[in-house]
Amino acid sequence: MQWISVAGANQLSAFSRSSVRILSGHSVVFADIPAFSWTLIELSPLPFFIQRTLLQLNGGLPVMYVLLSPQASTTLNDGKISKVVGLGEMIATTAGTSPSAWFALCMQDRIMRDPALWSKEIGDAIVAAGDDAGTWPAFATALQNLGRPIYILNHVGRPFADPVDSPLPRFTVTTGAGSFPVTPASGNTGIALPATGSVQISFDSAANPMLAGVETAGGAFEAAYQLPADTRFVQALDANTWMAERDPEVVGLSRWNANSFLDPIPDGNPYFARLVQDMRLAQGSGGGVGLAGWAFVKESLLDKTLQWPLIPGQDDTRFLKLVKDLNDSGAEIRLLVNQFLQVENNTFDDGETVLATLWAFFAATFVFSAFGALATDPAGFGVLFGCMAAANFLIDTNWTIDALRAIAEPSKSTVDDLAVINSNIAKWSPYRATTSDNPLYVPPFQIAGITIDDVIHFGVYHQKFVVGRTTAGKYFGYLGGIDINSDRVDSPIHRAQFPYHDVQARLSGPALKDLIQTFADRSTYDNASVPFPVPASVDPAGDHLVQVARTYYAPSAGNGYFFAPKGESLIHRSNLKAIRASRDFIYIEEQYFTPDDEYLDALCEAANHARALIITLCMQNGQVYGPIRRTQAIDKLQNAWGVRVKVGALVRRHLNPTPANFVNLGRCVLAEDIDANALSILVSPTSHVPDPPFWLFVGGELMQATAKTATGDPNQVTLAVNRGPVLSRTTWGSKVDSRSKGSPVMCVNVPHIYVHAKLMIVDDIFLSVGSANMNRRGHFHDGEINAIAVPQNLKRDPLNPARVLRCKLWGEHLGLTPEMGLSLFADPLSALPYFDRPWLVGNRWQPLNWAGEPTDTEEPNFTASDSMMSNLLTLAIGSLTQLDRSTFWPVLVDPTSFSDPNPTSAGPEV
Question: How far apart are CA 834 and CA 818, in angstroms?
């Protein structure tokens, strides 16, 4: 903001009409005025004129601030935050030449405007709305007479700051009077906007300059920006500081693609609906679709005899049906299917029964990854390799590789059925990296005394992307975290039985060429045909600068893939650049959050130049030893950021129990009075009480039932209950109080929402979304793909993908609609208190200790929401303590490759 001082014997009228906050303090506020005791009044914008005017304001709602020294008298401040400022009330200042009061205004987009600009914007909005301007034009004219200098601001709309932006950037302002070099430390160039003639701004010190208007839409990338008539504010950004260069020897892809468009799509149902629409446009001669995925599962989640439709209720959208329709229409369709099982020399010379057990167990538990009973997904399959290889018993049976693949490959039945349609459609795609490509691997590889050398591939293609060409010759593409898998079916309201959150993105424009090239390169390596040729170019489709970034392993010796012979770590390096360039906030959604040291250190250092860090995770980490690393990482971030970091998970609304054999299961009554301190309750009838653990409402109070004990009365049972975290009994949002006998008791399920997204948003400018988890496996080892985008028109772009996605996600997570999020959360920093709202009022986002989960220990952890996995592995392995952290963590759970600049740590220590 820029403050306007009021000196002399004057009266200042407040034109915003009700106070939001009244604050006070004693400090230096202005460099040229000694410290003084001040009062700050924040005035809300409503009712600021009328609705039609507010809707015309491009920067969002205005908020007025009045700063008072002791020499200013007012009836406004009586120390009460709820004080209402009435129309016509005045602030009186004392006579003299020194100012005793100041006022300023900011808009919801937080971009700095001087008084001449915001008064003009409000005046223009009044006129555009057809409202009565009253005395505003005279007031605005007076402010505009204060001067009209040209301003150049950074990407968040504030002046460039020394030493954060040291050295300060250099620009050239060209008017009819000549060209003038400037380094606008305060934002003010000192050059007045001329009455006539054009003005051009060049970002001289930027390698890849991006400039955009604050008052009007439009911008320029890698060129000078011409100010539209009668505008004088510009934002500037160097794309080179946000997106890294491609890795050496990566071929066929651009560093980035201008004039592209990234459309983020939260959750499976909206994504599948868009995908089906595009696939149908590809039906016919000349059309083609290519899909690459971690898994292609056609079976429904709960009934393996049925195929699931991509669009609920529409059986003609079952995946095999869609593929057959494409094939029968003359279109080309191709699948690259990740292959988990790779066995050296097709033999089990070190114990086939151990590996048979391993893979049988993996197949048996695969489905549970959908809803958090077993959180395993991409890295987890390697964990299961190791867990079962460590088994201290053998099954007396004989297995073949084909038999193992039949039960261990989740996509096998789909691939087999596709072969009936056309043998060229699906191609198995094994990942090439081996244990020798991991600098932390030390041979021989032994677990529990068993040497493992038949399996040396612990990496996967984790990429999930689609490329397509319609019969009209238009191209489309998608990438993100969503596979063609029945466990991904959910909507932003998360009412699925096993709630699942993820994000996919639809690409259009020139960036598609890099996505199509990626599919073609993998097809060439796997000796598969492509659905259509890589186009020479793709027509512009928007104003986003989009980078298609990938992870591929770097080999220990020689070359890896021909398209990335020395590996690729662009996702990691671009994300690091964005973290280091942050000034306002960083928002992360992540499945595991076990970051490598360099990434974690960058997040900690960002506390010195950014204002907030928000991280959304799964309620529990599902990796062996993963909880240790995650806890250590979060502790380190909290030490760096203090109260400015928020870490939480998603918890959906409650779900009534399935009736099963009892129609009234879960519906009980309280059999005796309880007080607010009771930690056990007596309920009846016994036949209606499910087995703990479960949740229950007792007269409106939410509790956890942790144990059930029989009583002398067969119709009554005692439940041990948790009525809220010990230190804060308001976390769940329900009052802990006494309850009377006969109060209704409803036993419910409160599922965690499984967070599978892998994304980062920085300052509402930078978006990275895709398949890569933020750990060594995702950044240096497995095959991954992300889209990274910056809007070329910066914050003025109404379709800015970073802001659009953040607002939709926060609306979804905080219990509102995505559409409400776009309006209510436009200002990310003022939206942060919404994260602190309790679950009972609708807020899905809650702290990790919301349900009182035990603190992570040094012991191996196999479970995400209950003890099923731990119990099974205890039976299989015997003693969990025999698991060797130095083997499990760096080789199986979180392997790296030779592209990792810091391949350290023999365990999950920070």
Answer: 14
Angle between helices 597-605 and 626-641 (to 10 degrees): 20
CA 838 – CA 841 distance, rounded (Å): 6
DSSP state of 651: B
- Nearest Cα neighbor of 321 from 331, 334, 308, 338 is 308
String of DSSP letters for 435-457: GGG-TT--SS-EETTEE--S---
Distances (CA, A) of 599 to 135, 553, 649, 772, 908: 54, 18, 21, 13, 14
Query: 834 is written with which tokens?
Result: 């919404």
Question: Rounded to an integer, what distance in angstroms lies between the CA atom of residue 740 and that of residue 718?
Answer: 16
Query: What backbone phi and psi angles, to 5 degrees, belong to 533?
Result: -70, 155
How is 728-785 classified by DSSP, letter by letter? -TTTTSS----B-TT-EEEEEB-PBPEE---EEEETTTEEEEES--SSHIIIIISBEE
382-403: per-residue pLDDT in tens?
A: 444 444 443 333 333 445 556 5
pTM of the predicted protein model? 0.91
Query: Rounded to 5 degrees, what are φ and ψ at 83?
Result: -55, 130
pLDDT in tens, 629-681: 999 999 999 999 999 999 999 999 887 766 555 567 889 999 999 998 899 99
Count of alpha carbons within 13 angstroms of residue 245, beta-carbon side: 5
- Name which of 367, 375, 362, 363 is nearest 865 in CA terms: 375
Q: How many other C-beta atoms are found inside a 10 Å radius of the C-beta of residue 307?
A: 18
Instruction: Write out the two tokens for 567.
Output: 């590996």
Q: Is 277 helix (H, G, I), strand (E, B) or coil?
A: helix
User: DSSP character for 26?
Assistant: E
Q: Residue 134's Cα: distance from chain center in Å? A: 46
Residue 216, token pair as written in the block: 């009007």
Contact 552, 567 (CB under 8 A): yes
